[in-house]
Amino acid sequence: MAHQTRTEQQTTADDFFRTEIRTGRIERAEVFAKARKPAYKLWIDFGDLGVKRSSAQITARYTPDDLIGRTVVAVTNFPPRQIADFMSEVLVLGVPIDGTDDVVLLAPDADVPLGARIS
Fold first, then answer.
1. Where is the TRNA-binding domain (predicted)?
2. Most exposed of 19, 41, 79, 97 (fewest Cβ within 10 Å)?
């Protein structure tokens, strides 16, 4: 099978470095019953930045119990988004699996400080 090259929209290094991507640990996770698509409400500890909330469509792979204590990577400086009755403050990063509802969370492969900025 030949690899297809897709033209991606280019950005500058300055644009990338303005995006704050940080590590956090999920403290609490619960089913988000009011979400239009299956999702969880997450409360994530980012160390000195405090606990931030996120709505994440990661129900195909993870249960709420699977998520507690997991270190994740998230964008922390996007504007908050109101989703139903929940304010999502950060965007948890993951890799969607084509043709499925599955998303694999991005995470460091060793212990890192909470709130550490990805560079």
1. 15-119
2. 79
